[in-house]
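S., here's the first fold you wanted:
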Amino acid sequence: MTFPANRRNLIICLLVVVLAGGCVQRRMTLRSSPPGAAVYVDDYQIGTTPVSHDFVYYGTRNIRMVKDGYETLTVRQPFPAPWYEYFPLDFVSENLIPWEIRDERVVDLALAPAAAVPAAEVVARAEQVRLAAGAQPAVAPVQAAPIQAVPAPVGPPALQPLPAPVQPGPGPYFPGPPPGMPVPAQPNQPAQGIPSLGLP
């Protein structure tokens, strides 16, 4: 089966358009005031502001921004689909248009400075968390008694009796040096024999 030249050229053009069809490039840019906040989109960290990130599906995203010294900000940000992404136009915009369509979304959020929390409130929150975790009941704080000065005694210090001296008991009995060791000479005793035990 043969086609006329102009029909064949039309079919080739349609195939080229379908194979090299267009697409929609979706991109969100998140900025904060002040910049430098860590950004989480649907609980996935994507960087620090300002940051741009591609996305595939339209809908509502959970965006959380965290920065030291500022309150953590959490918002539900809708990204509605544009008119050319509704059925049946989405097939044409995604497949048949021979150029790229860019859909850029910009979200600007302002962070509030963190408020100073009083120490009593921090302690109360800690007690609530401890009780919720099933710990022991809270113990009332102990108030320290004021320190009172003790008057110095007038006159000489009282003398305490000394403990009784410990009387030495009989020492252990040593029968003599080990075998093969020479016996030292003692006064008024012969050099050989058994050493004197101090008996008369």
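And the second, which I think is the more interesting of the pair:
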Amino acid sequence: MLVDAWLPRAAAADPQRLAVNGLSFSQLLAAAGTAARQLSALGVRAGDRVAIVLPAGEQFAIALHATFLLGAVALPIDPNGAPAEVAERSARAAVVIDRPLSGHEDPAAILMTTHNLSSPAVVLYSSASSGQATEVELSYGNFWWSAAGSAVALGLDEDERWLCCLPVSHVGGLSILIRSSIYATSVVALPFFDTEEVLRQLTSVDGPTLISLVPTTLQRLLDAGLAAPPSLRYALLGGAPISDNLRERAASASINLAPSYGMTEACSQVVTGGVPLFCTRIELDEGGEILVSGPTVACAFQPQLATGDLGSWDADGSLQVTGRLSSIIISGGENVSPEAVEAALLTHPEVAEAAVLGRPDPEWGEVVAAFVVPTAGSQPDPNELRAFVEPLLSAAQRPKSIVLRSELPKTASGKLARGEL
């Protein structure tokens, strides 16, 4: 099914409306068109991958829509990720954009006026179900249905202004930019979460009407004095369990929460306010695992996505996420694979064995805690070990504590008995 290309349609409908930060839709379209012709001059063709290694902001939006205008596939990569990871993922793309594009434009470049809803639009990385970073290819149709479902769940203000302070290399942040181009509404995109700047935005008279947060960032805003933001309709809150205390603090500050549950494989939101999106079907198998189906689910996971999460239905029909089948640690809304952290620790010459698990934390929900068995005759310093793995891991993956042990608990078959830690 073909639909009008989202950015050209928005620019035609309301050319002077702000699209992203200070760029109007007409300015964004002009800049994206120039960038598309520059990408074409570099040899990018429909279906090619374009790695975008930029933070959220105007330049990211230009690169993203330039990619779409060529019918290429965007591959957003966190510029603050571990260098080896950034390099490995960038190598999978035909072109890497890590600065504003410049240079020769291809005058023969053909720019798309339509999107095919079944065609791939974006490739993201997810570790939600397997513990290992896996590619997830999302189509234009996935994003279209997600935008439609979100609009029904939250309502849609003609003058919507969505504050994006989540990484755009993750589906939660990226979806804000894409769905706002579908709606032809505005985005304020920040390169990273900064409490003072987000607080300033929210307390402005003409501030955001929507914001996406994780519990950690909401807690920081409340600690900084956020109360009764004048324009905010909802704070969409997901990525980790929400404590009763946090809910109460938000209510006291006159902040309407829209608790959400979602994942990359289902193109962001699955459930908002306990209710599945109108286009989404939720089932629980005999073991209580949450199963998702519908048009937001990526093609590779059709017809039904097994989430690896456990859930139950409340008496009023709301879905409650009760736990995880896997050992994934969720720290500040980031999924952390224990195995990835263990592998980094094991590269140190004085580490014989390593085990990692999540430790409850009032600010982050969970933080990474590590247990290490030293090699024979050695006694590594835990602080030195933390410094050693720091360049190998992202901020969320870095252990907040390392404890030396003479041995690790094992099962009868010799596997790590992680639960006993």
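Why I say that: Residues 25-41 form the longest helix (17 residues). The domain at 2-323 is CATH 3.40.50.12780 (Rossmann fold).

Talk tomorrow,
H.
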